[in-house]
Amino acid sequence: MDNKRAIVMVVDDNIANLMVAKNALAQFYNVFTMSSAAKMFSLLERNKPDLILLDMDMPEMDGFEAVKILKAKPDTRNIPVIFLTAKEDAESELESLILGAIDYISKPFMPQLLHKRVELHLTVEAQKLRLEHQAEELEARVMEVKHLNENLQKMVEEKTNNILKLQSAIFRSMANLVESRDDVTGKHIERTQRVLKVLMQKLREDSPYQDQVQGWDVGLMLESSQLHDLGKIAISDNILKKPGLLTAEEFEEIKKHVEFGIKIIELMKTEVPDADLLKYAKIFAETHHEKWDGSGYPNGLSGENIPLLGRLMAVADVYDALISERPYKKALPHEEAVQIILKERGSHFDPVLVDVFEQVADQFAIPTYFLLKP
Prior knowledge:
Helix content is about 55%, strand content about 5%. The protein is α/β, with parallel strands linked by helices. The two termini are about 45 Å apart.
């Protein structure tokens, strides 16, 4: 057996489904098939898989009960689980995600689609492991810096610089991980950083907010802005990658990415409570969908009750969405996108920021927009 190949367990009481899954995956992974949860637990005593495809509806022990047992045991709780089911109701999907499943695949499934979904999640899990390893390295280096002698100031500075580079790499990796799932948005993070930088520079030069932004560390804030959509990592692929307009119910689900993003950042802050990067990242994640007139989400904030960073990100985020192509719309020309931003002055956007945006809008016109460096 090739130990370098990922191990995938497929659990389904339907033999035909097991055969389809094995034929679709065996060329790429070491595949174990079994017809019951009991057989799965027996095999888990000898082999730990990288991924489990688990049928939701089985006799004796169904998928819901099986995943509860998996998540309760320390040696299996971190094994990613994808549910297989013929059900298509939102309640079942939501329950599976609450129990800890990472995805939900409807049966009957296409072999090629099954392979791609498995490939995607194994890639995501590998990236998560790399991030965990990087975080461990970061913590080790921080501890090393704390114990350096005062006479080794140069070494302290070198180590600190390495830590900042690693921190930046982790943020970029996390941002790339989000974009790798939400592949519709492309270079959205990089482009919004460019818009933010131009707006912040203009605010410093001449605006009613000049004094407020004068002391900002723009580089740090731009780096933090990468995580404004971090919570999308917790949104189901069925919604995130839907090739068309979302239903009202699906839109309510995708709005939860703000809540998920806040929770992830708060968890990170428990380990590094004084990190300005995370403080700014939380502001961006929590407030970039608030609107000046109070009609935004998640908290319905209005006016200057919305942090200035959130108001800035709202402009950058919407502008980039307007000029970007989506499965359900074509990209708008720069000029038309600018006019839409201007019309939303005092409703969606801070009037002062719209005025500033209008003054610098020519800098975002293609190809100039793509040549700017964040």
